[in-house]
Amino acid sequence: MKVSIVPAKNFMNKSNLTGGFTCNPYVGCMHGCIYCFAKFMLRGRDKADVWGKFVDIKEFPNYSIPRNTGEAGLYLSTVTDCYQPLELEAKATRKVLEAVKESNLLVTILTKSKHVLRDLDLFKSMKSIEVGFSIALSDEFAEVMEPFASKPSERLEALKTLKANNITTFVFVAPIIPYITDVFSIIDAAKPYADYFMFDSLNLKHPDNIKGILNYVNTYHPELKTKFEDIFLRHDHTFYDNLRTDIIAYMNRENLKYKYIYD
Question: Does the model's pTM come out above 0.70?
């Protein structure tokens, strides 16, 4: 793993995606998820850099919060995992949280890592904090598709711990991988400990992602090859449309809160 320290301008940046601010303390990620949508971050980098094989630690000149932010949202993170294993040593995310803990910012953390629990002391001192986990696979599937992330079962245990400490929690069931993600089992396992859910489909806009997923299917689930080609090469929306309808019906029937579901 190639690790570098790189200068960066602002630790908070306006985000069209979240409608508030975002903070990405790192460029790159150690988790090695074969479907990672953030591979577009390779643009402009050395051609020798391979996604999942490098991480840049951002070094900010200061941690001054922009004026008049008030109760704006601050999202960690959108194109990296702010609690990837390197964070235990680098503490880039903890530095950000220490800088904003006295503010009125509405801080949201999304991760695949059990290591988020290290900062439970900070979470408990903050005015507004919510912590969520991306969960889309069983431990068995994740071992291949998310090889260096915490196991999904470990994320669920961390979710329980956060909830027991009165931290607002959520689960992002994403990416939903057709015929592999057991959406309703994830909901059932997490619902006692999650304040709300979100759902998203699999984003294969980057050509490396299409190649990676199809190679995975050809190797481990050749019986799904035609179905995946229908969805991602021939753009058949039937699977996701039907699943969306079923998810909404289930969430309403179980009286569970969700804030986002893919179109």
Answer: yes
